[in-house]
Each structure stands twice: as structure tokens, then as C-alpha cells.
Write a structure and sequence with these properties.
By secondary structure, this protein is of the alpha+beta class. Helices cover 27% and strands 22% of the residues. Helix 7 (209-218) packs antiparallel against helix 8 (224-235).
Length: 262
């Protein structure tokens, strides 16, 4: 120990070689050391997967890996993938990246994989993945390794519980016309004879209740006072109120997982 009143100087020396050699990348075909691999990889371990609470494995890795884009607004019936790794490499072919689970290609839906069964995820992001998995890996590879028991390992029990609560959908978030404003526009179009050809069409196209009331009033099937009363009643009808009151509820998603390894 230095004498009293003297400063203690501590020098730390780094050993990066020991850290690099310890990092092993699982490509789904073999385990290679990071220093000897030529490709671009991202490793997501159990600690990173447990940071976010979700029953979907894609939500667990969203925002954790670089170069991986999750498309939230996928248009149906369009050749578009929910996952894009460093851009898209195919035009008309399958746009999805290759999913590998425990060294075998997984053709099913990745959302069916329980996140609590996953031990680690490796994302292969460059052309080196094609040297391992061929043409199917043109859009990248996601290698999923599930939890397994090891030789001479003591039995281990783990229990996980998660609870996710969400608010009911806000039907008034999107700014659309109110029923009163919509009927006022129909009234303007009616006064400018916009619906005349539709009323005379032999195909009998479907018309809104307000236009049917306008036509009945013009044909003297109902009085003008009855027409005004029915139009005023339609202006007060808003199905969003009934949907929000009787149909939609706050969401509550619970998940319980019991794992036994050994």
C-alpha cells in the first residue's frame, strides 16, 4: 500500500483478442468464430430477447438488430415481405428471408414460434449467407436456435409470465366526414342531378338511404316534412359510437411459460 497522502495509480491493459475468440456465430449449418467469419452477422441472445414483452418473436427482435426493417403496413395480395434485411434482392420471386430453426429451413409462419422457446437468433445479412444456404437466402437468413438440454446438466425449471394491456381502438383518430356532413354533400349532388342516371339505370345500383329519401320525396311518396324528419334522423346515426360502446374492448394478452431443461 502507498503511504498516506499518496495517489494510487491503477493501469488497466485490454485483451481484445480473448474477447474476439470467445464470440461464436451460429450460421444454422455450423458454429464459426467471429474472427474467422467473412460475413456480416448479428447475434441476439436470450437477454436481448427478454427485454421486450411480446408473444411474437418478430416483436422481440424489432429495433435490436441493425439492417433489419420490419414493415408494419404490408398491403394484402402484394408481393411484399414483413421483414427486409438490407433491402430487397428479388423482384417477382419470394421476398421473404429464409427462416432456419435448429439447422433446418422452416417453411411455416414465424409468428407461430414461441419466443420463450428461443435461446438465440442470428441474422445473416450479406452474400456470405448464399454460400451456406443457396439461392433461397437471397433476402437474408434468420437462424433461430431453440433451448435444449446439455450433457451432464442438472435439471432446471423456469417459469415466465407476461401481461400486455392495450387501449381500445380510437375510431375517431382518422379524420373522416361526419354523417351530417356526408348527407349535406349528397344533398348538394342531388340538387345538381348527379343521381338521376343511377335512378334510371336498369341495373338498379345500390344507393344510400339519404338518396332513397330524396327520390321518394320527389316522387311524392312521402311528404316534405317526413323527408326532413328522416334526413335529420340519419344525420344523428353514427355507428362508431355503437362500435366503441358495444363491440370494442381494451385488449388483454397473457402468456404463461414453463420450461424444463436438463
Amino acid at each position: 500500500m502507498p503511504p498516506a497522502g499518496k495517489d494510487l495509480t491503477i493501469i488497466l491493459r485490454s485483451r481484445p483478442r480473448a474477447l474476439i475468440e470467445a464470440v461464436v456465430v451460429h450460421t444454422g449449418y455450423q458454429d464459426v468464430k467471429r474472427k474467422s467469419s467473412t460475413g456480416s452477422f448479428d447475434e441476439v441472445n436470450t437477454d436481448l430477447l427478454s427485454r421486450r414483452v411480446s408473444t411474437n418473436i418478430l416483436d422481440r427482435i424489432d429495433g435490436v438488430t441493425s439492417g433489419v426493417l420490419f414493415n408494419k403496413n404490408v398491403v394484402p395480395a402484394v408481393n411484399q415481405s414483413a421483414i427486409t434485411i438490407r433491402g430487397r434482392s428479388t423482384i417477382y420471386a419470394n421476398p421473404n428471408p429464409l427462416i432456419v430453426v435448429d439447422n433446418f429451413p422452416y417453411p411455416g409462419d414465424i409468428n407461430n414460434i414461441n419466443p420463450e422457446d428461443v435461446e438465440s437468433i442470428t441474422v445473416l445479412k450479406d452474400a456470405a449467407a448464399a454460400a451456406i444456404w443457396g439461392a433461397f437466402s437471397g433476402n437474408g437468413v434468420i437462424v433461430i436456435t431453440t433451448k435444449k438440454g446439455k450433457v451432464s446438466e442438472q435439471p432446471r425449471f423456469s417459469f415466465t409470465s407476461s401481461l400486455t394491456a392495450g387501449a381500445r381502438p380510437d375510431l375517431y383518430y382518422q379524420k373522416i366526414l361526419s354523417p351530417a356532413d356526408y348527407i349535406d354533400i349528397e344533398n348538394y349532388l342531388w340538387n345538381n342531378h348527379f343521381y338521376d342516371n343511377l335512378l334510371l339505370s336498369p341495373q338498379y345500383p345500390a344507393l344510400s338511404p339519404a338518396v332513397e329519401i330524396f327520390a321518394a320525396s320527389r316522387n311524392h311518396l312521402i311528404s316534405s316534412s317526413d323527408s326532413t324528419a328522416q334526413i335529420d334522423a340519419l344525420k344523428n346515426v353514427d355507428t362508431r359510437r355503437d362500435l366503441g360502446k358495444y363491440f370494442y374492448r381494451p385488449s388483454l394478452n397473457t402468456q404463461y411459460t414453463l420450461n424444463v431443461t436438463g
